[in-house]
Structures are given as C-alpha cells and as structure tokens.
Amino acid sequence: MTSPHNQVSAPGWQQPAGAPQPPQQYAPGQYGQPPAQYPPQGQYPQPGQYQQGGPYQQPGPYQQAPAAPAQQYPQQGQFPPAQQYPQPGQLPPGQDGQQQLQADFLKHTGMLLWWQQSTNTHTGTVEDLRRAYTKAQTHNLLFGWWSISSVLVFNWWAIFRNMYEYHKVKKAAGR
C-alpha cells in the first residue's frame, strides 16, 4: 500500500491534478534550514510586507467596525466621596426613614433519622426582624424535635443562635 507521500515510479504514470504533493526533499547539507521564503531568525515581517497569494487570499474587501469611544476612567487615587455609599454593616434607611437592619435566622426541622437546617437572611426594620425571629423560633419549637440528634444538639443550637441574632438586632437598634 502506498501513502500519498510515496512516489510511484510506474512508467507513464502521472499524479492526478489536485492530489497532494509529496513533501519537498532538501539536500543533505540543508537539513534544519528554513526555506528561503521566511525571514532570517529573529526578524519579523512588518504588516503588509508579504503579499497574499495562492489559494488562501482574503475574499473581497472587509470594512472594519468603527472603534468604540474610549471610556474615561478615574485617575489612580481618585475615588467618589465616601458619603455616597453606605459603609459595611450599614443599610440605607427604609421608605419611611426607619433604620434598616439585617439578620440571619435558622430554621431546624428534625425528621426521625435525619434533619434539615436552613439559614434565612432577612432585611428590614426592627419590627420586620421581630416577626421573622418569631416565625423561625415557632418553626424550631414545633418541628425541630423530631430526630434524636435534633433533641440532643441541633435544635438547641438553632434556638440559641436565633436568640443571639435577635439580641444583636435589638442592640443595633438601641433597644
């Protein structure tokens, strides 16, 4: 079996048009030297130096998209005034001007051999967070005792953690 790179030397045989050409053979002293069409090593062509030709010409003229306008960025060290943004841990006032606070309350559910616990983040006034605290604690007291691990550890953890979180809310509100 012959590969496309092997030359067949049968009398009267010619390679069909469009068939792949065999690789170029270099003289023994020229191995490792690049063909003459490339620039010397270390020199790179400038744009437009080579002409495109052969089967790989670019089809038709293309128009470049217009460049986007450059965006203006602040210089290094220039920042907007700090009073425009709330500091970490602070939230902007609510619609009626009351202080907005944030708290995470746990809901624990015991289920015979396993249990489920979810953390719910609430944002609002002190009254909104009191309602969320009451809802989470009611859930824990009704549904948190139904597995052995919940009775011993996990439901207690959820109840006391919610108490601590609500204490932080009241302290932040000044009550």
TrEMBL record:
The entry's protein name is Uncharacterized protein
- Keywords attached to this entry: Membrane, Transmembrane, Transmembrane helix
Spans through the membrane: 141-160
Q: Which organism is it from?
A: Actinocatenispora sera
- Extract the ranges annotated as region (Disordered): 1-98
Q: Where is the composition biased (Low complexity)?
A: 26-98
